[in-house]
Amino acid sequence: MNQRTPSCRLKMGNSYAGQLKSTRFEEVLHSSIEASLRSNSLVPRPVFSQLYLEAEQQLSALEGSSRIDNEEEEEEGEGGLEPSCPPNPYQTHLPPEGCCTVDGFCQAGKDLRLVSISNEPIDVPAGFLLVGAKAPGLPDHLLVCAVDKRFLPDDSGHNALLGFSGNCVGCGKKGFCYFTEFSNHINLKLTTQPKKQKHLKYYLVRNAQGALTKGPLICWKGSEFRGRPTTAGLCSSSLFPPLDISGPLAAFSGDPTPGTSPSIPTGAQPAGPASGHPPLTIATSPAVFNGKDSPKHQQLVKNKLLAVTRPSALGILSNSGPPKKRHKGWSPESPSATEGGYPQGGRSRAKYENAVMSCVPQASLAGPASVTFPVVASGEPVSVPDNLLKICKAKPVIFKGHGNFPYLCGNLNDVVVSPLLHTCYQSSQSLSRLHEQYGAPTPQPISEEMQLLLTVYYLVQLAADQVPLMEDLEQIFLRSWRESYLMEIRQYQQAAPQPFPPTPSAVAPVSSAQLPWLAGLAASSCNDSVHVIECAYSLAEGLSEMFRLLIEGKLAKTNYVVIICACRNSAIDSCIAVTGKHQARILSESLLSPAEYQKEVTYELVTGRVDSLGAFFSTLCPEGDIDILLDKFHQESQGHISSSLTAASVTKSASLDVGGAPACTSYSLEPPHIRPFQLAVAQKLLSHVCSIADSSTQNLDLGSFEKVDFLICIPPSEVTYQQMLFHVWHSGVLLELGLEKECVSKQQVEQHVLKLDANAQTKFKSFLQNSFQNPHTLFILIHDHAHWDLVSSAVHNLCSQSGPSAGWVDRLLNCREVKEAPNIVTLHVTSFPYALQTQHTLISPYNEIHWPASHSDGMDLYPESKKYFGLSEFIESTLSGHSLPLLRYDSSFEAMVTALGKRFPHLHSAVIRTFVLVQHYAAAMMAVSGLSQMKSYTSVETLEITQNLLNAPKQCPCGHGLMVLLRVPCSPLAALAYERLAHVRARLALEQHFEIILGNPSSGLTVGKHFVKQLKMWQNIEDAEWRPQTYLELEGLPCILIFSGMDPHGESLPRSLRYCDLRLINSSCLVRTALEQELGLAAYFVSSEGSPEKGPRSEGVESDAEKLSGTDNEDEELVTEGCPSEKRSPVKRERSCSHDSASSGLSSKASGSALGDETSAQPGGPWQGERAWSPQPCGPSEEGRAPGDKQRLRASQGPPSGVSRHSPGPAPQPDSGLKTSQRDVQVQTTSSSQLSFLGSSSSSAAPAASTPAPQAPRCSMAKACRQPPVVFLPKLVYDMVTATDSGGLPKATSLLPSHSVMWASSFRPPLSKTMTSTEQSLYYRQWTVPRPSHMDYGSRAEGRVDGFHPRRLLLSGPPQIGKTGAYLQFLSILSRMLVRLTEVDVYDEEEINIIRPGDSCSAGCCGHCVMLHTRSTELLQIHDLQEEPDWRYLQLGDPWPDLELFKKLPFDYIIHDPKYEDASLICSHHQSVKVEDRGAPRRPEDLYVRRHTARMRLSKYAAYNTYHHCEQCRQYLGFHPCYQLYESTLHAFAFSYSMLGEEVQLHFIIPKSKEHHFVFSQTGGQLESMRLPLVTDKSQEYIKSPTFTPTTGRHEHGLFNLYHAMDGASHLHVLVVKEYEMPVYKKYWPNHIMLVLPSVFNSAGVGAAHFLIKELSYHNLELERTRQEELGIKPQDIWPFIVISDDSCVMWNVVDVDGGGERSREFSWSERNVSLKYIMQHIEAAPNITHYALIGMRKWSSKTGSREVHEPFSRCHVHDFIILNVDLTQNVQYNQNRFLCDDVDFNLRVHSAGLLLCRFNRFSVMKKQIVVGGHRSFHITSKAPDCPAAVAPAQYVCAPDSKHALLAAPAQLLLEKFLQQHSRRFFPLSLQNRGHPVLSVDCYLNLGPQISVCYVSSRPHSLNISCSDFRFSGLLLYLCDSFVGASFLKKFHFLKGATLCVICQDRNSLRQTVVRLELEDQWQFRLRDEFQTANAKEDRPLFFLTGRHI
Prior knowledge:
With 1990 residues, this protein is α/β, with parallel strands linked by helices. The strands form 14 sheets. Strands 36, 37, 40, 41, 42, 43, 44, 45, 46, 47, 48 and 49 form a 12-stranded mixed β-sheet that branches. A 7-stranded mixed β-sheet has the order 51-57-58-56-55-53-54. It is elongated and about 135 Å long.
């Protein structure tokens, strides 16, 4: 048997691989070839020379095994080792004394660096090239070298002579014949073996200036992975990417023909492809690759009898070098080297390693290609002889090639006909059309003769145990076809291009007459492996000859028969028959579909054809039949227990029953949680859903959904179904989504999980009906295990042999109702997404979510306590030399299967493999039970598994054991294995020691009562009816799980899984999806704290006694590190001595690597650092078997303290942002029993955590936390998984991605190792197409965006990594987000400065005072001279104010809006105040942060921003059927205004759908006016007042969608925007009218917008009055009101009051949300409405009390949402210069003009907190570039003409900000002096909260408070006009020392104002008291002067 111990490589020297014994024959053969090369008529020179000389290089590529150049072998000598051996360090030679050793210089001291000598002339001999070498000591430099170009490769990586020849360009030394010598001379200073492939990197070329520069890379192929089984690619160039010829096999089969079956005779149908069949709709087969340990190979290597030089099948190149390394009789000057100008090169003779190579064509689901693909036949029929299978021991497989194929008749059951080769030929003929897409010149397609010739050479170079790969052949054809074009590129890159390079057309084609001779010549060197038959008339003649030779046994050594008929004119007929037993068996079986495979196996079992196999096994035992031996053992063991193993276990069982459950201290409970990666993926899913909603396609309106519902669709597996129910139940997602109110029952959970079987339709229809009836619920349709059942429902209806469950995914999830439902989002979840990533997929690449890789950027934000162990980690374990690999194969098993396959050719290999494996398990159980003689009849691997299965329960006081997974895909074989193993177990009296469970997808689990009792005891389950329903619930149970079913259906396995036996997986798994799916069963989470280096345990913890008493326990082999490739220290690598009884006598039968004595250091007993463990099944936070994720037990306060005490150290804490996210996802505990169990387990584990017990036996569950399971594979699969291609990728990734897809073309680049998941998806989307049976076949998306379904997503991630927990978490956060979308943060602040009568006064006044309550909790006492107020008589229920009574109300000067908390208090009456400090003023940036908000749910009457889309407001936003989208026009509107000094020109942007609101001239269509309604209009269909909303910086977040707020009523809404913001506002709000301010107002504040709105509205009122007066309407009947609304008003409310009487103080009230339409129509309907100048409403607050709503109306300030009478306020203007408090200033102006301001207290407006835009969009920065960005307010003002840093901000803004923060500098006496305020004339400026002001108007007849008794502490004159005179100011009295501040536009105006107002009479000024805002002169700063009162 093969030994798998590390062995040294055999030295091959310079000999050819397969060099002939006769040197004379070699010379004759060479002479013949040279004669043929010189012939012009017989053989085309370029073809055959290429095929001959490139043989070995292509052999290396095709075999998929590692090659070592002869040069390397000579340098390594006899001591060269295999990669598994420790490498020998490279011994560098000391340089000669006195030599230069400086990096970059040669030993002669000459500079070789490219940067130094690029411009120096360099003498390059003929035939040499300048190349750049990389030196480790100079990574940034290239060293210039001159190298003979014959020793360099061409652009395809070939044609390089072995060895080296180079010169030093520095010192000029020549003749370096060894690269080692040369590397020493140029001081490369290497620490590894010098290799030209590694260090010669670039060609060097001269640029246009003549300087030497770095050129293209030197294309070394296959040299970077010399120590691993890699395969060289074919070529590389600047135009085409390299193509790996040993990638997946592109074997083709046709589409299924309905109604065909394997029983139809081949002769009844044509045996070739139907004419006109499209070549790219044919099936593609997977690949099987070569291995390394063939017995045939070892024999050949020992005898050096390798095959003769095999011609390569690589295309058309000239003879370019000698046949041997440094051939003595060949020189560069020889004609063969230089003739024709072709580049030189050579071919090495390298040793090769044989392996099993298989062609596995995958037929469609309807049937095998050999039957369902019709083959065209012609001519006379050929009779298949009887007993062909019996004689040949295999069914010959005939591949139809070119031309016509004859009919077959007779014994058709013993032959298989396949069209795969014919399809391959057709595909290569069509490559030229694909080439044209790349814009390159199109060479002629490869001829049929060349195709067949290349095929022959390909077959010749195959080893005896290899099977041809169609994809290899395709790649050979592709390269040959491209070669002529690539030659031109290669010659251009070389140093001496010829003036007229040869054209590809010069290559002579192979003629039909030459073909048989060339094929025979090639076959003559392969030792009869390939036999060529030439026919004179037809293929029938050749087939008959082949059958005759088979019957006569003359083809016993022949694997392939090539039949050629070249009699037809310009055409050939051909076919190739595979007659080798090994190759024919694999090929014939691989042509069966899964259904036919099951049918064939069932037939063999039912008909008794396997009886002969059973009889053979019964003769193996020397003591007779094994059953007889079992019966004898059973009789001897009756009545007593003889086995010590049995006694120990039964005693333990008795102790469990009597004394209660002993504590298993080897592990403790770890609190479950959502892992960080799962949370990250859930957030990515949410982000993608939001991006769909945010797109402009209107495909998802998240704002219209109120809740989330879901349905999870899974494959029809009962275990998977129960597992999903468990996940959903324990996740608490139903409670969190509000789908269930209290405790959740199993029946409620079942409503959300759907098995896709025949009963699924009813539940799915209910789901669809529910989605239709609940349009405001977002339904997430989750398709888990989405790669399963992609069969089209149409195909399934026609041909349903693929199974009763096929087609349901397409029928249900792809139905029209799901696709069109706007509230259904489909989420496909799979570990293998490849079949959903085709050219026709419905899933957009932007809607794919890939599981983040642990090494990707940003993943350090998601710390994980466990490491995922998947396929790549398993493969890495095979590369590390310090421990046994986790991936293994059983050579003994494989050898026996091969032998029996030859003995029983009529049996399917799956039957043979199953019988052999069951026999091995039976013999192993017997051997462990005491029948030691049975050790010889099992393999070491099986014996190891069985020993550990039986011995593991002894090591745990609770009896925990391990699980062995035995994968038997075929259900009948699984049942057979179950029956046989159960019988053997019963006869050995082992029923109580381990369970055997048959896992069938169609049925639940059956577990014996004894083991159910153990499970209930371990898991603290008291339910008497409980039974395990999932594999996860088998945690710790010693068992063999026979896992049947053609494909796993998403079943998760427990942590106690220790062995994953996949030795029976069949050839159908050899596509990427199936293979990764099988290996995914072993995926595992390993505790990163469990490694010996990181834990506190040491090797000495384990006692020697335990080591001596231990058996061959494989569990002690490997303790996985954080990184699987990480090397442990030598101490930790010590091997323990084996005392395994199974190890005796087996060394000659099996490899030592499978023995227990080759184990790593055994982990000791329990230790403090071990992770906690929960015995309950895994929750949805992880699909696999991670220790801490067994349940999703959610606690609102985090992990219980009882558990955290036992953690080995501080748990890794995520960052604060992650903490917040994790805190959000936690909900209340779903089960109280879980909490009690959590506490009890934690407390019981405390002693184990604190006190180590070295002598205690170790539970297998404790080891499972740190060790992934061991996987056993078939040798065929093992070789494929562990082999790598030329790009470093595992071969498995290059396989056909899925059975249901096929390659779109052979002309495709290989997958790259650096590809991310996203790039792999794009690769498959480009290069794969679905088969006709695929559900996406009819979807012709082909990359078009409109072909993708907008609401379909794909989540992919490795198997068992936690995808279920991730998408359940996604449902939770999506639900919370929808709730959040329906909620908004509104300001919730109590009104400030509230007057509360009755509060006690501390001022010692006479009682006439009220208290002003401020937000800073101080009490401001105001002594009011008035008596009981006159406004208390208003009725509580008055809907509108009474005009006459309202006029009597005094105006409340005090500001109550909480946003003006930091504003100056306005004094309104004569006051004598004693007040506490209001507190220090706040910084402006703190104002927003400290404002209180409340979260409110949006009502149906809310205003929305641009993110809201729904069907109701679709037309409102611009989707009008009568108008084109976004169609609008620009109109200018001009009016003159004296204050501005010029005509004002505004621009309206008016959408077509809104033009009816305007009047246009009939002639030119010019805008004339905006239509206004009449006061007398009483219509309820529209709002009469136009609404203006000034906005800046809030194009996305401004609440401009008033459709719902207006309840659908017609209204006119105008956005007022600045000119520079117009484009972005128009983009987001294309259907809104926009008023664009002039460019001079781009830097203005909100005052300018208010000013222009008002003036424009009044001007429009005048125009409308004039226009409608012509229609007979009175001017006063035109509606004069407009609405000015903030862009943050979100909802409106009304208070309903229920009063007890007219003057009753007792009343009840309630507040409700109403539409803005209701409020506006109520206000507009008020009597005498036109007599009010300003109307507003209260700002909403949750703290509103009865006092605020008792009085229905107030005469006070109004803010935020005002209704303005532009007629009454004609002479009152907004200050266009203001930025802050402009509404307060305007309110005071309106009141002083004698106009009425009315606030409706029963109405309130909610303002949304918007953190962007508005006044925050103004940033004050310095103009100096070196100054900091932030400027302190004290720097906003400076002295005139100073060198102060100038600021980039409007002067008015600087002034207002400065006064708000630093006005105490100007008014020191006013600070906290409420009794002596600052007199402010005609304006209100905020001087800060500690200074109060008194506003007076200078206008004649204005209303002002009486100021005769006031003594003011200051005077503020702001841009005072002519109404302010000296006489006006003399009316007021000031304190001595009061201060004055005069503000003007310029210094001249400042002086004129001082003179005009005679200020110098009472005020003293100083020169230093003049200031200006810190603006540049061009920015027109404001100037102000301060003075003191005399």
